[in-house]
Amino acid sequence: KDFYYITAKEAIWPILHSFPEHFTYESSDWENFQHINRLFADAACEEAADDALIWIHDYNLWLTPYYIRQKMPNVKIAFFHHTPFPAADVFNILHWREAIVDSLLCCDLCGFHIPRYVENFVSAARSLRDVSVAERNPVPAAFTPFGTALAEPDMATKLEYQGRIVNVDAFPVGTNPSYIHDMVNKPSVQQRVQDIRNDIGDNKLIVSAGRVDYVKGAREMLLCYERLLDRRPELRGNVNLIMTAVKAATGMRVYRTAQSEIEQLVGQINGRFSTLTWNAITLFTEPIPFDDLMALYKTADIAWIPPLRDGLNLVAKEYIAAHGGEDGVLVLSEFTGSAVELPDAVLTNPYSDKNMDECIDVALAMPPEEQKRRMAKMHQAITEYDVQQWANHMFREANAVIAEEPDKTLVSA
């Protein structure tokens, strides 16, 4: 429990998401973190041939590449980072920064969601070690090169360190649009869509789905919704917000305050505005079955995704998939990794009350033709780069590293 609940979530997680004020060092158990990583490395090495390709996932296993490299110097190692990678001046707050960078530099390929995270890693590595950029390229066409918070026009793709090349690249995780399409067309899900619509009538339905986390922007969204009902009294009784804020597991003490704040704000807003026949906000704090969640997405006129920081955000892509490129409005924080893939969303700055207010007004007023135009483009983007394409892309890049020996055995950690 200490490995995940405390060291990962109280020390590393806030730094990854650029919230150093939540960083806690004293309760962290770095020796235990090292021990767990050694166990994963040992398990991978037991399964791997001498020339295997080992694919490692996420910051919880930051040190695993180093331990594998010590035992099996000839294997090829690919690492994928599922969270943001912060700017160097934030990352370097971590007491164990050198060990982490040294381990990642043991990899043959390091993958991140978007070019900004690649650049942040390169900057951190160069601040701590004598690393040089061996190759730099314009970002692929799938990424917005400028005009939003996380945009980058170009990125490093090869680093040189101690005589070896470390490849770095951006691989934004996709969703499964065909599976979601089949799901929303199931008779049971279509009936659920109809039931939800019957319950709310002609009201505009806004859905915001996620789990409890101080990085998710729930407070900022709820305050914006409260301002909306204050600014535009004609919307009272004519708009519904359904919010999922799934509670963290018992023992995740870092999220208790965030959970309490969400529940208090929802109570405050419902207390101010709800009537006997209309609830301003419906809050779910327990997990919702996936088919019910897809029914909510399909019914929703607007998906509101407001994180202050998020590695990617698959909810945005799931909402687009559920609507099949036909209708709906996606209001998306520009501080999510997916924002640089989805410029046709209504991109919002959750740190600006004024911008948040303007964006929800735009979403509520968007005509059907513009909805279809925007959603069709975003649906094309998520269909062309789905979860299978993500995996294929990373494997292609990994195999390019080992092109002289293409028939590697894959061991995933």
Notes on the structure:
By secondary structure, this protein is α/β, with parallel strands linked by helices. The chain folds into two domains: 1-174 and 389-400, Glycogen Phosphorylase B (Rossmann fold), CATH 3.40.50; 177-385, Rossmann fold, CATH 3.40.50. Helix content is 45%, strand content 17%. The chain has 15 helices and 13 strands. It has helices at 2-16, 30-47, 64-71, 88-91, 97-104, 115-128, 177-184, 187-200, 218-231, 256-273, 290-299, 314-323, 353-365, 368-384, 387-401; strands at 53-57, 76-80, 109-112, 132-138, 154-161, 164-170, 204-211, 239-246, 281-284, 302-305, 329-333, 346-348, 410-412. It has a seven-stranded mixed beta sheet, sandwiched between helices. A six-stranded parallel beta sheet has the order 9-8-7-10-11-12, sandwiched between helices. Helix 2 (30-47) packs across helix 3 (64-71), helix 9 (218-231) packs parallel to helix 10 (256-273) and helix 9 (218-231) packs across helix 13. It starts with a helix and ends with a strand.
